[in-house]
Amino acid sequence: MSNAETWTVRRILDWTIDYLKQNGSESPRLDAEVLLAHARGCQRIQLYTQYNEPLTEQQRSVMRGLVKRRATAEPVAYLVGHREFFSLDFIVNAHVLIPRPDTEILVINALDACKGIEAPQIVDLCTGSGCVAIALAKNHLKAKITAVDISPEACEVASQNIKKHQVEERVRLLTGDMFSPLPKNVRFDLIVSNPPYIPNAEVSELQADVQKHEPHLALAGGEDGLDFVRKLINDSPIHLNSGGWLMFEISPEQAMVCSELLKAAGYVDVSIKNDLSGQARVVCGKVKP
Ligand code: GLN
Fold first, then answer.
1. CA neighbor of 47 nearest in space, from 56, 35, 57, 58
2. FRET pair for 144, CA 20 to 30 Å: which of 124, 135, 181, 272?
3. Which pTM was predicted?
4. Are the beta carbons of 171 and 162 closer than 8 angstroms?
């Protein structure tokens, strides 16, 4: 084979970028680089110093499989098996929602609400991969977190992440529906949640990556998307200390309605927080002290 035909890092990147662009990826270069780094077992940054190196037959075959799957809108995070969130690396698979940067503001606000509490007791409902619970534990070394998810498969992923980040002592995992597995007669300082909040009819209209591959159980929130939000608002007070906080993620157009629901239910200091791209993303309310 002449040089021009050798599948070097550069050539396979160029080819993949072009192919993914034609097959609907919105970030073809990033996708190609992440997949190739995974196929070669190296860091993405190292590709830049390896541009002229040829791929082994084995690497080419792994890469072919990954690119084929990416071209059917399978998310890169599922293909490589992990995703960064709050500067931590999380294991993911198709049983859990892929952690999104939008959700980092939930962690930031929760950490803020914990200021002044020596050892905050926190509940994370609909934990999925466990990214919110674990990011809290890693950033507040005295926080104790109870993470809950209805899906045993999601709990398996969360459990792997809890071990990976060595927070087994402070993050307890319970399988069950929302509040149902929580201990009775125990009150918490804070309840956080990124619940499913997409109106059922809109799930089929989501971007192909999300709609075809992410778990609908983690997305569909009932007719108006607010079934889980209403449950959070109604049931949190009996699980919170006086002055305890409820905060949850929503989509920007639901923010006003959710803050009204919180006020109507008697929460005080209700506020809406924007995510890092400036969209209303988290709603917070406090149980009357
Ligand atoms: N933000 C997610 C999306 O747009 C939805 C997350 C959720 O329902 N909790 O796909």
1. 35
2. 272
3. 0.95
4. yes
Segment 252-289, tens digit of pLDDT: 999 999 999 999 999 999 999 999 899 999 999 999 98
Region of residue 283 (phi > 0: left; psi between -120 and 50: alpha; otherwise: beta)? beta
Of all protein residues, the one whose alpha carbon is nearest to atom 1 of ligand 1 is 251
| Parallel/antiparallel/unpaired status of strands 88-91 and 82-85 | antiparallel
User: What residues does 285 pair with on adjacent strands?
Assistant: 246
Atom of ligand 1 lying closest to residue 221 CA: 8
288 CB neighbour count, 10 Å cutoff: 10
Q: Choose the residue to mutate in 106, 193, 194 for probing ligand 1, maximizing ligand atoms within 8 Å of C-beta.
A: 194
Cα of 194 from ligand 1 centre, angstroms: 8
Q: Are 141 and 118 in contact (CB under 8 A)?
A: no
pLDDT digits (tens, 9 = 90+) for 92-104: 999 999 999 999 9
- Closest atom of ligand 1 relative to the 102 alpha carbon: 1
Quote the ligand 1 centre to 221 CA distance (angstroms): 10
